[in-house]
Amino acid sequence: MVSIADKIGWTARPLNEWVKKTEVDAGKRAGVPTDVAEKLKTLERESRELRQANEILRKASAHFAQAEL
Q1: What Å distances lie between residue 34 and 9, 23, 37, CA to CA?
Q2: Mean pLDDT per 10-residue run, the chain (69 residues)?
Q3: Is residue 29 helix, strand or coil?
Q4: Distance between alpha carbon 19 and the CA centroid of its chain, in Å?
Q5: With CB atoms 3.0 to 4.6 Å apart as the test, which of 7, 23, 58, 65 could cross-link to 28 if both were Cys?
Q6: What is the CA radius of gyration of the chain?
Q7: Which is nearest to 34 in space by CA: 43, 42, 44, 24?
């Protein structure tokens, strides 16, 4: 790993991480594939945004209900 990293101008650590990631994506190593991790990150962000929007709507609804009284 070190000799290959030296030849391409990298250090061994990022090269090793890249190899591990490639093996996970290929199903040769246990772990979460890149595409699944990206999708999960997107879904988590969307969920957080929806929770924030729901909280805003709840507060607005409560405000307008109070104003009606």
Answers
A1: 25, 11, 5
A2: 90 94 97 97 98 98 89
A3: coil
A4: 20
A5: 23
A6: 23
A7: 24
Residue at token pair 């040769």: 28
Paired tokens of 26 = 């290929």
- φ and ψ at residue 11, rounded to 5 degrees: -95, 165
Q: Give dist(CA 27, CA 38) in Å, integer.
A: 17
pTM across the whole model: 0.68
Distance CA 25, CA 6 (A): 25
**Interatomic CA distance for residues 39 and 30, integer angstroms:** 18
